[in-house]
Amino acid sequence: MVRDASMVAPVWIIDPQEDLTLPSGPVKFNGRSTDPSKKLHWQILRENSNGDKSSYLAGQVTASTVPGQGGTFSFTVGLGAGRYELRVSLMGPNDADIATDTRTFTVR
Questions:
Q1: pLDDT digits (tens, 9 = 90+) for 11-48
Q2: How many domains, the chain?
Q3: What range does the domain containing 101 cover?
Q4: Within a domain: residue 46?
Q5: Backbone angles phi and psi of 17, in degrees to 5
Q6: Cβ(83)–Cβ(47) under 8 Å?
Q7: What DSSP designation does 18 have?
Q8: 3 within some domain
Q9: Cα separations (Å) of 85 from 65, 79, 103?
Q10: Element (H, E) at 103
């Protein structure tokens, strides 16, 4: 199977990369959306000792509309040690999540 490079995901988390280990403290998240006119909903889930995930933090961010940077988004949150999953979703009508990307990462 070959990926068609002309096809772009509606939401793409660029950083952190999947399964990356980061130091505790401020963690910066970067990504891109194909529709900068729509808000993005983000959620960080924390993995419990039994492997279940529960909501830890959530918020919204708006992608940039600056020429040459259209669609980029960035936000920073402080995180302690643990295993996390970031979910970023493009918001559609009635604030429904219409496209989502996820990344799992660890903070030491």
A1: 999 999 999 999 999 999 999 999 888 899 999 999 99
A2: 1
A3: 11-107
A4: yes
A5: -70, 160
A6: yes
A7: T
A8: no
A9: 27, 12, 6
A10: strand 97-107
This prediction's pTM: 0.89
Domain with residue 57: its CATH number is 2.60.40.1220
**Angle of CA points 66, 20, 10, to nearest 5°:** 40
How far apart CA 101 and CA 61 sit, in angstroms, is: 14
* Cα–Cα distance, 86 to 43 (Å, whole number): 6
Q: What does the pLDDT look like over 59-103, one tens digit per residue?
A: 999 999 888 777 999 999 999 999 999 999 999 888 889 999 999
Contacts (Cβ under 8 Å, ≥6 apart) of 38: 63, 90, 91, 92
Pairwise CA distance, residues 62 & 37, whole Å: 8
Query: What number of other Cβ atoms are within 10 A of residue 56's Cβ?
Result: 16
DSSP letters spanning 61-102: EE---STTSTTEEEEEEEE-SEEEEEEEEEE-GGG-EEEEEE
Task: Give a yes or no: residue 16 inside a domain.
Answer: yes
